[in-house]
Design goal:
The structure is a homotetramer.
Chain A: H1 14-28, H2 40-47, H3 51-63, E1 67-70, E2 74-77, H4 84-88, H5 91-118, H6 121-137, H7 141-157, H8 162-170, H9 172-188, H10 191-209, H11 213-232
Antiparallel strand pairs in A: 1-2
Helix pairs in contact in A: 1-3, 1-5, 2-3, 5-7, 5-9, 5-10, 5-11, 6-7, 6-10, 7-9, 9-11, 10-11
C-alpha cells in the first residue's frame, strides 16, 4: 500500500470518511484482491485518527464483504466493487448507504410479514399496481427509484401498522438515494440483472397475495440484502 | 353482547377506537373468556363503521391474543387483560402501544445483533451502567421507564449504525409511554415479575458482552415480545 | 365440484391421501382458480373421513399456497400447479415432498449460517467444487439431483457440527426425491429458470465464502423456499 | 498456562477431545477468567494435533461463550462454568451436548411455529398434560428429563409434519442426555432457576395455545438457547 495518497478530509463521521478512503483505494485498484491492509496501528498513524475510528471503519468494510479478517494474520481485500460506484455516489456516502440497508432488512421484512397477514384486497391491489409501475420504470432508471419506493411503501401500508409507514417516510431521502444507486448499477449490468430485480419484487408480491407471512418476510429480507450486495459486486456477477 | 353500550367516539383511527371499545368490554368483564363476538356484519351495524374498520380491529385483537377466530365458526374472547390496564392507559391508546412493540421486535433485535458484533469496550460499559441503573430504578417505577429507555438506547448506540439510534429517538415518546405502562403493570405484580424483567435485560447484556449476535438478537426479541404480552396478561400469570 | 370422482384409497396417512386427491382435481382442472371447495362437513361425507383428517389436508393445501381460506366464507382454489406435476410424482407423494421442505428451511438455513462462521479453506473448496459440478449437471437433469444433494451436503459438513450432516443423510432419499421433482419441473421450464436455480446456489456459496452468516442463512432459506414454491407454480411464473 | 497437564487422549473427534481438555482447565481453575490461551501454534505442539483441529476446538469454545478472541491480540478465557459440570458429564461429552443444542434451536423453533398454526385441540391438550407432568417432575430431576422430552415431542407432533417427530426420535438419546445434564445443573441451583425453566415451557405452551406462530418460534428458540447457556453458567447467574 506504499504510495497511497490517503488524505483525511474533515467532515461527517470519521469512521465513514476512513471507510470511503479505503473503498476508493479498492475501487481504483490501488489495493487489489488478496492485498493485506496496513495494521490498525499503521492506519491510525497514516490517517491521524484514533483506534476506535479505525476499528469502526474496518468492521464496516468487513460487514460489507469488501475486506476479510483472518485470525492472527491481518485484514485482506476481498472484493473489488464496480468501477462506476465512486462516480455514482461519493466514496464516503457509500458507507451511509450500506448502513441504510442494515436497517431496512429487519424493518421491511417484518412489514412484509404483517402485510401477508393483514392486507385488505384494496391494499393488495395497490401493491400490484406499484409492481406494474416498477416493471415499466425499470426501462428508464431515472424514474425507477420513485416506482421502487412506491412499491415498498405500499407493502408497509398493508402491514396494518402505521409506524412502519412513518419510519419509511422518515427514511425517504436515504432510501431513494440508495435505490437510485442500486438501480443505476443494475442498469449498467445485463438485462438479466434487471429481470432478477423484478423477480425479487414479484416474489414479495406473491407471498403477500397468498398470505404466507414467513415467505413474505424471507422474500423481502432476501431482496434488500441482494440490493445491498449488488452495490459492491462486479457486474459480471450478474 | 346485548345491552352493551358501545359508543363510537370521533377521534383517532377508527380501527383503534373500535379495538379500544371491544377491549373495554373484555376488561370490564361484559364479555368473558369463551364468549362469541358478534359477526362482522353485526359489528358494522352496532358501531356504524365499515367492514374494513371491523376487520382491522378484529385482526389486531387477534394479533394481541385477546380474541381467537375459529374457522367457519366465529370469533371468541380468549384472554382477559388485568383490570388496571384501562385505568393506566386509555382503552384506545392500548392499540397504539401494542403496535409500537411490533416495530420494536425486529428493529431492536437487529440492533442488539449488531451490537454483539461491533460494540467497543466503552459502549459495552455504557450498556452495563444502564443495566445497573435499571436494577435500582425498578424499585420505584416512576423513574424506571427512563432507565429502561436508556438501556435500549445504549444497545442501539453500540450497533455501530446511527440510524438505529435515530429511529429510537423518533419513537422516544411512544416507547417510553409503553415502558411506563408495562412497568406499572409489572409493579402491580409479584416481586418475581420484576426479577424476570431484570433477568431479560441481563441476558441481552450478556449476549452482547460475549459477542454472540444470534443470542443477542433472540434475547432482545424475546424481551420485547414478553413486554408486549405482559400488558394483556393477568398478573397471576407472573 | 359435482361429478368429481374422489376415490378414497387405503394406504399411507389419510391426510396426505385426501391432500393428493384434491390436488389431482386442481391439477386436472376439475377445480379451477377461484372455485369454492366443499365445506368441511361435505368433505367428510364425500371421502368418508373424520373431521381432523379433512382439517389436516386443508391446512397443508393452504400452507402450500394451493387454496386460501377466507374468514367466514369458505376455502377457495388459489393456484393451479403445472400439469406435469402428477405425472412426475404420485399425487399423494407431493404432500410428503412439500413437508420435507418445511424441515429443510430452518435446518439447512442454520447449517449455512454456521458454515459461514466455521468452514475451513478445504471445506469451502469442496462447496465450490460441488457448485461447479451442479452447473454442469443442470444440463442433464438426470444427474443434477445427485450434484444438488452433494452441494447441500458440503455446506452441512462445513457447519462444524456433524449432526447437521447426519440428519441430511437420514433424509437422503426424501431430499433427493424432492430435488429430482423440482429439477424436472425446472428442466421443463425456461433456460431462465435453470439460471435462477444456479444463481440461488451461487449466492449461498458467496455468503459462506465471505463469512457472512446472516446472508448465508437468508440465501439458503430463500433457495429452499423457492424450490418448494416452484413445485406448485406454473412454468410461466419463471 | 505453564504446568498444565494436557494429556491428548485417543478417542472420538479430536476437536471435541481438545475442547474437553481446555474446558477441564477452565472448570478446574487452572485457567481463570481473563487468562490468555496459548497461540494456535503452541496448542498444536502441546497436544500434537494439526492446525485445523486446534481451530475447530477454539471456534467451538468461542461459540459456547467460554473463550473470546480479540482481533490481533489472542484468545482469552471468558467464563468459568460451574464446578459440577465435569462431574455430571465427561469433559469431552460436553462439546457434543452443546452441539446438539445448535441443531435443536432452528429445528424445534420451526416445529413450535407450525404447531401454533396447526395443532388440533387434542394435540394442544397433550402439550398441556406434558407441561403439568414436567411441573411435578421438576421436583425430582431423575424423572424430569423424560417429562421434558415428552413436552418437546408433543410440540413436534402438533406441527402436523411427522418429519419433525422422526428427527427428534432419532436424537432421543442425545437430547435426553443433554436434558439430564441441564436439569441436574438447574437442580443444583436456586428454586428460582427451576421456576424459570418452567416459565420458559409455559410461554411455549401459551403461544401455541393462542396460535401465535412467531411468538411460539421465539419462545422455543429462547428456551433451548437458555438451556444451552445454563450448562456453562455459574449458578449464581440464576
Amino acid at each position: 500500500m506504499a504510495g497511497l495518497k490517503l488524505l483525511p478530509k474533515r467532515k461527517e463521521r470519521l469512521g465513514d470518511q476512513l471507510y470511503g478512503q479505503i473503498l476508493e483505494q479498492i475501487v481504483s485498484g490501488a489495493l487489489t484482491e488478496g492485498d493485506k491492509l496496513p495494521s490498525e496501528k499503521e492506519l491510525c498513524l497514516m490517517f491521524e485518527v484514533s483506534r476506535p475510528v479505525v476499528r469502526e471503519a474496518m468492521m464496516l468494510l468487513q460487514a460489507d464483504g469488501l475486506v476479510v479478517a483472518r485470525q492472527g494474520s491481518g485484514t485482506y481485500v476481498q472484493r473489488r466493487p464496480p468501477q462506476g460506484l465512486i462516480a455514482l455516489a461519493g466514496a464516503s456516502d457509500v458507507a451511509g448507504i450500506l448502513r441504510c440497508y442494515e436497517l431496512r432488512v429487519p424493518l421491511e421484512g417484518e412489514a412484509a410479514a404483517l402485510a401477508a397477514k393483514r392486507r385488505s384486497p384494496e391494499q393488495l391491489e395497490r401493491i400490484k399496481t406499484a409492481l406494474d409501475e416498477l416493471t415499466r420504470a425499470l426501462e428508464s432508471p431515472a424514474s425507477a427509484a420513485a416506482a421502487d419506493f412506491a412499491f415498498h411503501r405500499a407493502v408497509a401500508e398493508a402491514s396494518g401498522n402505521d409506524m412502519f409507514v412513518s419510519i419509511l417516510e422518515t427514511l425517504h431521502a436515504a432510501v431513494e438515494n440508495s435505490m437510485t444507486l442500486a438501480l443505476n448499477i443494475t442498469a449498467q449490468g445485463s438485462a438479466e440483472r434487471s429481470r432478477r430485480v423484478l423477480d425479487e419484487h414479484g416474489r414479495i408480491y406473491e407471498a403477500i397475495a397468498i398470505g404466507d407471512s414467513d415467505a413474505a418476510n424471507l422474500a423481502m429480507r432476501y431482496h434488500i440484502n441482494r440490493a445491498r450486495q449488488r452495490i459492491t459486486e462486479q457486474q459480471s456477477d450478474v
